[in-house]
Write a structure and sequence with these properties.
By secondary structure, the protein is of the alpha/beta class. Helix 1 packs across helix 7. The chain folds into 2 domains: 266 residues, 3-Layer(aba) Sandwich (Rossmann fold); 85 residues, formyl-coa transferase, domain 3, CATH 3.30.1540.10. It is elongated, with a radius of gyration of 25 Å. Helices cover 38% and strands 15% of the residues.
């Protein structure tokens, strides 16, 4: 494996996860320097390998854009966990690991002899992280957990979409992403705990829990008010004006965060007296008279282009920005300056990737390995982690274990 100098160099991660939440977590661990061994089912692998188009490359080794998004800086080992030999190899690998991440259904790892209870005697220092839809306990523990269902059940869809329309999901599987981030932070905390005490531990993470936690101020509004949170489209529940507006040629976003910014806005549109109007002078007043203010501003903003308004607003220190498509945002000069898009050489060609947003001064995140082809590293991983020689590995291959 290419040498790592990252913050997690020397940490071995055994990754039994598939699709998004778990792979997103383990990719971030890999970005930070960990050695990530991705265990996949022979012949099929992570199901997201087949989630195209779009595809990168051609033939049997082509990779889906979905799989590419969360599987760099990993090496792939195929392992038949339904065979005794495969389970034995998996246990031996777990004995060498610092961290194990899995997202099988509750009890799934028990069937393979790879539960935390099975592995703890073999590796007392192991940090074992389970990701499920609903967690290891509770009435929903055995339900399948999919991001879309979680967005619905958590309340996220109820607050997303037009105020006069139906509930909408977010365009990205954010419950999966949030869970991956919570898993990363939990694993890092557990590594710190282990460094102090020598103890490994078990981490139970659920998509529903993570999405509820990620509701932050909206959940707090509901807890404090005792009322359902309204669906406001592109408006903010607590701040006005804080939404999209139509200019003469398209839409832009305006985010007035305080009364000073509102007064500056009033000057920009040539109506400074609005800042003294008792209906609009303070944010609580603006919130109470939202329709009147938004109607007034809406008429004014139609008179100039979105670019002109954004330029004028930013010059006064008022947060504003254009509404860009995803492809356009990836070409944005700010994103380019931050180095967020890079390419890495692979047998299929130069693969473009969105990099880690964390910029370290001493131990930066690195791009060392392209997303792996299925089972690409089986031999070298069994040799590195378990010391197996070519003949022993060949026996496993002939038997269909790898």
């Amino acid at each position: 494996m290419s040498h790592s100098t990252g913050a997690l160099a020397g940490i071995r991660v055994l990754d039994f996860s598939r699709v998004l939440a778990g792979p997103f977590c383990t990719m971030m661990l890999g970005d930070l320097g960990a050695d990530v061994l991705k265990v996949e089912q022979p012949r099929l692998g992570d199901e997201s390998r087949a989630w195209g188009p779009p595809w990168f490359g051609n033939g049997e080794d082509r990779l889906s854009a979905y799989f590419i998004s969360v599987n760099r800086n990993k090496r792939s080992l195929t392992l038949n966990l339904k065979s005794d030999e495969g389970r034995d190899l998996a246990q031996r690998l777990a004995a060498q690991a610092d961290v194990l991440v899995e997202n099988f259904k509750v009890g799934g790892m028990v069937e393979f002899g790879l539960s935390e209870a099975d592995l703890r005697p073999l590796n007392p220092a192991l940090i074992y992280c389970s990701i499920t839809g609903f967690g290891q306990n509770g009435p929903y523990r055995d339900r399948p957990g999919y991001d879309y269902v979680i967005q619905a059940m958590s309340g996220l869809m109820s607050i997303t979409g037009p105020a006069d329309g139906g509930p909408h999901k977010v365009g990205v599987a954010v419950a999966d992403v949030f869970t991956g981030l919570y898993a990363l932070s939990a694993i890092l905390a557990a590594l710190h705990h282990r460094a102090r005490t020598g103890q490994g531990q078990y981490i139970d993470l659920a998509l529903l829990d993570s999405q509820i936690a990620a509701l932050v101020n909206v959940a707090s509004n509901a807890l404090i008010s005792g009322q359902e949170s309204p669906r406001l489209g592109n408006e903010h529940p607590n701040i006005v004006p804080y939404q999209t507006f139509a200019a003469s040629d398209g839409e832009f976003v305006l985010a007035v965060g305080n009364d000073r910014q509102f007064a500056a806005l009033c000057g920009l549109i040539g109506q400074p007296e609005l800042a003294e109007d008792t209906r609009f002078a303070t944010n609580p007043a603006r919130l109470a008279h939202r329709p009147a203010l938004i109607g007034l501003l809406g008429e004014v903003f139609k008179q100039r282009t979105a670019a002109e308004w954004v330029e004028g607003l930013l010059a006064l220190g008022i947060p504003a920005g254009p509404i860009q498509g995803v492809a356009a945002s990836l070409r944005d000069p700010q994103i380019q300056a931050r180095g967020l898009v890079e390419t890495i050489a692979s047998p299929l060609g130069e693969i473009p990737l969105v990099m880690s947003p964390a910029h370290f001064s001493l131990s930066p995140a690195t791009l060392r390995l392209p997303p792996p082809r299925l089972g690409e590293h089986s031999d070298e991983l069994l040799h590195e982690w378990l010391g197996l020689d070519e003949s022993a590995i060949a026996v496993y291959r002939v038997a269909g274990v790898i």
